[in-house]
């Protein structure tokens, strides 16, 4: 089915007019970000309504340098972070990014992964799968990396949680609060979307 045929809970279709308006107001976005925004728009529009068929989106823009991508799927346990860190380090090594940028990205990824491992699956049974998915995308004109951290746990939008007040000492810091503050500060962009049963947090980092 096409995007404009998406239905909401009132069985109203998204339609061409809404699609044209959305694309017109997001025309300056990179194709990857445009698809992510369109996906979030449709999820919000459908509001949980079942669709009659699968939906595939494709965005093309001439003149954009090619991107390189890689993915890792593991389980959301803190003991697996070494695996995640090794994966991200290898991908960053291919980009030739400065050491400072590499360190900032690794700190942000650690905060996001620890957040998933600590909070996303609190209600899960011991034998339930706890998937953690990492997708890495890089480009060299401009130099930038995009990392998606996804899980199938409890809905949690980090962007809706305001930064805590700066504590007077580390002993007064709220668990998890400073991690989100740090992630937002270190990254150039941070986005969140709830895709079906999945939390997807996306961070972007650029450098000269």
- Classify the fold: give the CATH topology of the largest domain: Heat Shock Protein 90
Question: Which spans of ≥5 residues are poorly predicted at pLDDT below 50?
Answer: 166-177
* CATH homolog superfamily of the largest domain: Histidine kinase-like ATPase, C-terminal domain
What proportion of the residues form beta strands (DSSP E)?
15-25%
Q: Provide the spatial order of strands within the biggest beta sheet.
A: 1-2-3-5-4
Please tell me how large the radius of gyration is.
Answer: 19 Å
Describe this structure as you would to a colleague:
This protein is of the alpha+beta class and 208 residues long. The chain has two domains: 1-64, no CATH class; 65-208, 2-Layer Sandwich (Heat Shock Protein 90), CATH 3.30.565.10. 36% of the residues lie in helices and 21% in strands. It has five helices and five strands; from the N terminus they run H-H-E-H-H-E-E-H-E-E. It has helices at 15-25, 31-46, 81-95, 99-120, 177-186, and strands spanning 68-75, 131-140, 143-151, 189-195, 198-207. A five-stranded antiparallel sheet has the order 1-2-3-5-4, with helices on both faces. The model is unreliable at 166-177 (pLDDT under 50).
